[in-house]
Amino acid sequence: MKHYWPSYINKTTKAAPLAAFRFLFGLLMLISLIRFWYYGWIEKLYILPTFHFHYYGFDWVTVPGPWTYLLFFVCGLSSFSFAIGYKYRLSIIIFFLSFTYIELMDKTTYLNHYYLVSLLSFILIWIPAHAHFSVDAYKHKGLANEYIPRWSLDALRLMIAIVYIYAGLAKLNSDWMIDALPLSIWLRAKVDLPIIGSLMDEQWLHYLFSWGGAIYDLFIVFFLICSRTRIYAFATMLFFHIMTRLLFPIGMFPYIMIAASLLFFSASFHTRFLSGLSKILLIPYDVFCNGLTYRRHINFDRYAPYILIPFFLVQILFPLRCHLYPGNLFWTEQGYRFSWRVMLMEKTGYANFKVVDSQSGKHFYVQNEDFLTSFQQKQMSTQADFIIEYAHYLGEHFKSQGHQNIQIFVESYASLNGRKSQPYIDPDVDLLTVKNSLAHKKYILPLHE
Amino acid sequence: MYQKISIIILLIVTTLSCNDTDPISAIDRVDSFDRSEMLSFWADEIIIPAYMAYANDLSEMDETAKTFFADPSASNLEKLRESWLEAYISWQSVSLFEIGKAEEIGLHNYTNIYPTNIELIHSNISNNNYNLILPSNFAAQGFPALDYLLYGIEDTEEGIVSTLSKEDVRTYAISLIERLYSITTEVLDHWTESYRSEFVANDGSSGTASVDKVVNDFLFFYEKYLRAAKIGIPAGKFSGSKSSRHVEGFYSEKYSKLLFQRAFTSVKDFFNGISYDGQRRGTSIKQYLDQIQNISNSDIDYSGNIISQWNVAQSAADALDSNFKTQVEEDNTKMLAVYDELQKAIVLLKVDMMQALNIQVDFVDADGD
């Protein structure tokens, strides 16, 4: 080990793949933010709701009202700036902070690929993605390099490998593999699609997609690494992501993953890509191909490996934390997020909150639409941590209205992957007596198969 | 090479996994559900006939109002009240379908917001300067406002006849009736002229497709207007104290149950695919659910559970007084019992049915993953 580490850490590789990824990823982020703004989602998801659901430990992250637009503007600007490699370190740090802040504002909008964006941009802070094909390197000739430390490219590849492999492992459960759930529920509703629509009722297709998806996720990275299979793996990947894009509303995710898969392509592929792009953009690409290797410039580079090693340890361990909790993971969702569990379940719920005066016994029910958007109601009704946070909010609200001795109970039902609806949270627990924490939530009733 | 192997493995594995499952299911599988047939049935046999009957009743009400105002008498008032009731009952069958033009103009808000605001009605009458299009006037128009004018504006029949025939009151009453008629014909014309074909053609499965929208409207009606407005709110489910003032048809004091029953029947008929005239059966949500149960080999009887829960709610409702005002004031527990039974069906509808149909409650236009 002692012997291998220094030799690995000093290995170099061509800078082109990393630079190309920086460029594509930045542009995709810019498009994705513009798209978000254009669809009116900033207003709908962040500004209009009067209440926001917080991640545990991030209650301090609040929506800054109309300044949210500025936040998105800064985030968009920084994504363009790091894409072209202008004031790279500053831009990528601003992008990471602003994007992550946006995601932390309301967990209603949690998506695995937003989390991935945060992680990728965090890694990008620590690696010299601007050493090649960038404004910085063009202006400061000392920064222009043809080679970079090998570990910096490998760090991004490792991140992508973790995502796919964990996504694949997560699919190895009985609902997915044995019952083709929830894909059969989703595909059945797509019978109106042109050409393939008539197949969507077919059971074999549900199994083909389920098993194909699991095998794809588990092995695609290995086929991408191996140069002989790479082109086939890439074709499979295109097919897979185009299919999922056609069938499901998954936004920018397929494009991000397709761009990320290019990280596994050879340096010569990327050199051709960048020199072609340079011709179009009238940039003298030759200045970056100077045979030099990126050397440590600032403290960043010296400490980077020692930041990224613990980072990856966390990345490998964190998705496994669900095993610390009892019960069915899909039902309790304890340790479900941030674990690359993608499209694994169809869960529908209904939560009816009852406000009780513990002295007089008088009670009334809450109309959720008075407080939450329909999107928030949907997310809240199937996730215990949302239900607790909302109950506490209701408690504060009714206290401020002069109600006293308040207790809040919930009559909630949920249906998981086509099972019959069943009670979700213990209806006899006063939700104001429990707090959100990382401990096991005993008031989640067990799932009956 | 590896790729080829993996494709072969994948094929073998999927073939095997198919063999593992019940071979009968493939035979049982009925042909793909015909959404556009269902939409045609809804449009041609339920929605458009309901709107036509409703518009017809409104025009009838307009006629009887003209007769009354030309010759204000107790018997002409009675005729006006009868036509008002007919139209109010017909309204209960169109209110489920707040889609298309009705959604665009907000038909419900201009038709049936109660309790009506009598201070606002009087100030509108005396100012003679009001704009019924403004949201601030929702609670001063529609059937509940007419309920007040025709039954509650004075204590005696003679008093009502003489007050209604006053110039400013008459003008207001006529403008309410005419507005109901004009917005309804606007919706109906839109259906018959262009929207019908657009509605039927939009037979996809996205959140904005017709089936998804109608099913959401249907759920919304059931939850907000049937369960909450007609029963839950007067019974005090959302405030902690009962309030007979919130009963539908508060001033006429005898029709609240009739209106409720008609709305509930419309809900059930729509679910079961029974035509507006009750003569025909067509493709329905019930059939759709039954087919899904069949295809997915599910042991959940989606439609049966809903229908039997509704039967329980129906027998609880049958025990109510014809005037909910009396019921709330004298024995609210029966109102609460009806609410509870209607509520139990909400879980079956909003959770089990929606998951089976794979329809999102209140389609949200945002990304998933």
The separation of the N and C termini of chain B measures 32 Å
Q: C-alpha Rg of chain A, in Å?
A: 24 Å
Separation, N- and C-terminal Cα atoms of chain A: 48 Å
Q: How would you classify the helix and strand content of chain A by structural class?
A: alpha+beta
Could you give a short account of the major beta sheet of chain A? 4 strands, antiparallel
Helical percentage of chain A: 40-55%
* Beta-strand fraction estimate of chain B: under 5%
- The name of the CATH superfamily of the largest domain in chain B reads M75 peptidase, HXXE motif
Low-confidence stretches of chain B: 1-31
Structural class of chain B: mainly alpha
User: Which shape of chain B, going by the Cα principal axes?
Assistant: globular
CATH first level of the largest domain in chain B: which class? Mainly Alpha
Average pLDDT reading of chain B: 90
Proportion of residues in β-strands of chain A: 5-15%
Please tally the β strands of chain B and state the result: 0
In short:
Chain A is of the alpha+beta class and 449 residues long. Helix content of chain A is 52%, strand content 7%.
